[in-house]
Amino acid sequence: xxxxRRKRLPTLLVLAAGIGSRFGGLKQMEPVGPxxxxxLDYLVYDGLRAGFEKVVFVIRKDFAxxxxxxxSGRYENRMEVHHVHQDxxxxxxxxxxxxxxxxxxxxxxxxxxxxxxxxEPFAMINADDYYGPGSFRVxxxxxxxxxxxxxxxxxxxxxxxxxxxxxxxxSRGVCTVRDGYLxxxxxxxxxxxxxxxxxxxxxxxxxxxxxxxxxxxMNMWGFTPRIFATLEEDFRGFLADEGANPKAEFFxxxxxxxxxxxxxxRVRALPTSExxxxxxxxxxxxxxxxxxxxLTEAGVYPRRLWS
Length: 307
Prior knowledge:
It is a single chain. By secondary structure, the chain is α/β, with parallel strands linked by helices. Helices cover about 25% and strands about 25% of the residues. The strands form two sheets. Strands 1, 2, 3, 4, 6, 7, 8, 9, 10, 11 and 12 form an eleven-stranded mixed sheet that branches.
């Protein structure tokens, strides 16, 4: 692995441990580019040219060797590469796996397990979401300016209408932004376009109509290492309150919302006009392939990313 000399430049943290239950397979390994590139290739490429020189992948131990062979090995001569495992027993000291729990606890837990690998401001992204080059640029610029030990965080704010899937419902962190800062974020599920409208369900199960211009989080967050103490504190509380539920998830958006309400952090909104797409459902793959074909023809990406 090439060692890069950095003055605490921002790190890219990629959550790639998902099992792809809705997709029906290991979507991290599905080719979508003109030369067989994976979606993750484009994310790393966008991060690298935006100024990220270190990447940390959160993966599962059972496909770690395949992941290195097929994916992350190609990046090691271009940036600093690390891997951490989101194992079920990766818990704070003194905590135990509750009876009946079969899988890890979601995005908040995935970030927490990267604690030892990240000592600098970092951007967190999902491995199966396309964010666009502009999103990486605004996030990198923000992280380079923010105090490395502070509690000033950020998120890239997408317009809800630019983040919908044609092949099923989606879940989004619906955001309230005041004076450029995130005031609250609430998870909404079953979001779908219906007759020109956008309909969702909030946490109570009630249906609501949302504006297509509503700012949403696509889990592109910018943090400093101070977030890890907040994550551990909230995760301990989560295990005590909801640990007995074998399907309960510990969302990073819930932690952010709690940090804002309790004065443990503030979060700058970084608006983007980029159009999101992802590979959530098997049917999304053809749309992603067509999108990358068009982006390549438009010159956004070279024909061969890593030539």
